[in-house]
């Protein structure tokens, strides 16, 4: 197991402009992949084991865990089933920001 940087640390390291429109999509991909990796490692499974159970290749699982891919909902459902967890998707209101003066 290797130590992974947080999304914020990774962005700062490579100098990503967080105002860029692709930032949110990349953050989502990174966080989804990190969560799947955490769940997989907690069960003691390899990428290959989870990938086979989810009907995908190990290399596709590796790309997903690294944040290189945003999976479709059916793929997320298969990964969740492979990890024996329930897929839950939520839309949460953002906190109100104070108006600019």
Automatic annotation (TrEMBL):
Annotated PROSITE patterns: HTH_CROC1
The name this protein goes by in its record: Helix-turn-helix transcriptional regulator
InterPro entries, per database record: Cro/C1-type_HTH, Lambda_DNA-bd_dom_sf, TransReg_Diox_bact_type
Matching CDD domains: HTH_XRE (cd00093)
Organism: Amycolatopsis nalaikhensis
UniProt entry tagged with the keyword Nucleotide-binding: no
Residues covered by the HTH cro/C1-type domain: 36-92
SUPFAM superfamilies reported for this sequence: lambda repressor-like DNA-binding domains (SSF47413)
One Pfam family named in its UniProt record: HTH_31
Entry keywords, A to Z: DNA-binding
Keyword Aminoacyl-tRNA synthetase: no
């Amino acid at each position: 197991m290797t130590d992974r940087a947080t999304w914020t640390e990774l962005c700062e390291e490579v100098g990503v402009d967080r105002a860029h429109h692709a930032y949110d999509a990349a953050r989502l991909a990174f966080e989804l992949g990190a969560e799947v990796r955490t769940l997989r490692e907690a069960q003691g499974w390899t990428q290959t084991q989870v990938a086979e159970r989810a009907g995908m290749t190990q290399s596709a699982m590796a790309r997903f865990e690294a944040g290189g891919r945003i999976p479709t909902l059916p793929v997320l459902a298969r990964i969740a089933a492979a990890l024996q967890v329930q897929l839950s998707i939520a839309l949460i209101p953002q906190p109100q920001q104070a108006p600019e003066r």
